[in-house]
Amino acid sequence: MASMRCSADSPLSRPAITVQSLSKFAPPHIPDDVIFDILLRLPARSIIRFKSVCKAWLAMLSSRRFVDAHLEFSKVRPSMLIVPGEFSRRTAFQFQVGYYRYNGGDVAEVLHNERIAADERTCCGGQVQFSKPLHCDGLILVSTYDQITVCNPATREFLTLPKASAGVGFGRDPCTSRYKVASVFYERGVMDGRTIWILKLEVLTLGSNVWRRIADPPDLNVRISSVHVRGFIYWTTVRRENNHPKVLAGFSLADETFSETPYPPCIERGYVHFAELEGGLCSAVVSLTCEAAKVWTYNGTEKATWTLRFTVQLSQETITTTGVWHNYLAPPKLTFHGKDILIRGGHKLYRYSTETGEMKKVDVAVEDLRYYHPENNSDKLFSGDKVSFHIVKYAESLVPIREDMTVR
């Protein structure tokens, strides 16, 4: 076989490369709808990073169509958000709100930490007092005595709203796709020479930063806690004229009017908690002995009825006591998570399967987590004395807080 020789005067000949020969190495064209379908399955932090790829991707990933599609995909596989808040008297009355996402197993992912200003009225006995966080489309609203804050833990956007009462509701207007906060409170008035308290309501649309006074709601005694279901915010209320029966006051975020919904037909007395289940309104009634919880679902048609779905037998592990002598039962808190129910008893967390009836302790309960300590910039285990926490159903989203997305 003849050897090949090279010399400096006669360089190696290279094969000619034509455009036609390069075409087989060029990446194939991927249709935009395929790229769209692939990207919406990614976590929010990856999507935010991909916005810098090119202007076309930025426009697509910021569009209302993509944000809504990503949200619907997230709702199919919801997670839980564990929200602790720690008070620090040294740092000008601030406390740290942490957002820990729990998908199952023994890992809780830290999504975001945020400091919120507070004062002596918010911090009772060294512990931060804030109402149960409200969730809507990946946005979390936290209300304290001083202020209301809205956060998207996935995008780390954070917004402080003008001061309002503690009795707030939060949800999405199904007609305009705008997010609204409703605040109920009482104003002093005089009738027939005697002092009365009149129920009032104000609404703030995210992006406007202004509270609007709504026509006076029905003459009801409204409880602070609320739940948002399909464009309605529900409060537990009692008619004033006879202090009975209890009703649910439903506030429509679309036309901003009130309507009344009958209370569940609970024969026995108990601790009642309202929530959203499978896109509808439901109530969980824990018996006074805390031995069982009955779950009712509401059929909001012309023949409005409540239907008993199932009964959860609660174990002694979920029951805690309160009071100076620990002589009062503290009912467990129930949060619906797909076909399971997360039950918080004290500082422990349990998962109950509605299919098998099995209940087991969640290893990543609040007492097992570490929390950020703002005073020494370190993590520490839950101590129970200065940390209050809540469990919230959560679906990750790209919904912006400060932008108007109704025209895109």
TrEMBL record:
<dbReference type="InterPro" id="IPR017451">
    <property type="entry name" value="F-box-assoc_interact_dom"/>
</dbReference>
<dbReference type="InterPro" id="IPR050796">
    <property type="entry name" value="SCF_F-box_component"/>
</dbReference>
<feature type="domain" description="F-box">
    <location>
        <begin position="24"/>
        <end position="76"/>
    </location>
</feature>
<dbReference type="Pfam" id="PF07734">
    <property type="entry name" value="FBA_1"/>
</dbReference>
<dbReference type="Pfam" id="PF00646">
    <property type="entry name" value="F-box"/>
</dbReference>
<dbReference type="InterPro" id="IPR006527">
    <property type="entry name" value="F-box-assoc_dom_typ1"/>
</dbReference>
<protein>
    <recommendedName>
        <fullName>F-box domain-containing protein</fullName>
    </recommendedName>
</protein>
<dbReference type="InterPro" id="IPR036047">
    <property type="entry name" value="F-box-like_dom_sf"/>
</dbReference>
<dbReference type="InterPro" id="IPR001810">
    <property type="entry name" value="F-box_dom"/>
</dbReference>
